[in-house]
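Contributing new complexes? Match this layout with glutamine.
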Amino acid sequence: LISKLPNVGTTIFTTMSQLAAETGALNLSQGFPDFDGPDALREAVARHVMEGHNQYAPMTGLPALREQVALKVSSLYGLQVSAEAEVTITPGATQAIFCAIHAVIRPGDEVIVFDPCYDSYEPAVELAGGVCVHQALSLPDFAIDWQMLADAITPRTRMIVLNTPHNPSGALIEMADLDRLAVLIRDRDIYLLSDEVYEHLVFDGREHASVLRHDELYQRAFVISSFGKTYHVTGWKTGYVVAPAALSSELRKVHQYVSFTSVTPLQWALADFMAAHPEHLAELPAFYQAKRDLFCDLLANSRFRFTRAAGTYFQLTDYSAIRPDLDDVAMAKWLTREHGVASIPISVFYQTPPAESRLVRFCFAKREETLRQAAERLCAI
Ligand code: PMP
Ligand code: GLN
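Output block (do not edit by hand):
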């Protein structure tokens, strides 16, 4: 067998979560909460299952849920989108990413991604016959190097992948960045994939620079989000894509043969909950900022060095004052085995990792007692 994905192995998320389970370590590696989504949301699923909402939902998603997404987009980002033509519900953001890439990428096309880069874009591009062109974000702020980006664009560039708030760094793009990007790709045949799964996890009063706020960029964009992150239910694997009608139509051609539709009772429950609890979204930034601050305040007494994450539920930390001799993969394993806290090394998200990178990522979507216990162990090193 000649593998179609020779460079793909087990993901770092599986590796580290497994090691955490084997060793009994606190799992701050793979990003998921150790608490549950809202009671009313979970009760709504049970109700819809019992009420008989168990057969296929429409291919593009339950109309009531698409309507809620359109309402949210209008109230948060000031963009009027058609729930019918521009919103598609998908089984997770991961499936949405795969479908968006396959909707437009042809053999030989180039897709620009920024390193450190979330792991699900490149395999999808490769399966479509495309090639990822990796651009390193500049350190220490994980910002786009505009000159490098301009130089990387070729006549073969067909897509640019943005991810803000950014996993794994927690950095944010600003509206001014979107303006620069719009100028750079104006009059070129380039699509955008904007991975905004952490759109509500933005701290210190800053604003999420959604592509949905930018009329010009939206015309060529697939904007992707995940109910899993927003409602603390990552295992539900339910997400959505907002894209102009022509792009949504192409995306749906792929989606209808990858999965056809998404799990019905989950969509009913999400639609009910979004309608009844609009305050949930407004409360999220403060909810996660308090967790970030608790974790960071406690970690201030450790030898880890960090700048507080501007967004996401991930905190990057520099461990060079502790074990400069270990690369980050070895460090993450050592921390798990010897100190009982699992994290994610950053080098795996690079095509060419920066020399001497000494950064690991901790997920702070955890209960207060988990964060206190983890910090206690990390401060003792
Ligand atoms: N994009 C990013 C940046 C993520 O961190 C995640 C989380 N796993 C996803 C996409 C996938 O989201 P989902 O679980 O809804 O597929
Ligand atoms: N997005 C999650 C993270 O960054 C991982 C999801 C997965 O395991 N694929 O930790």
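Reviewers usually confirm one structural detail per submission. For this one: The chain has two domains: 12-30+280-379, 39-277.
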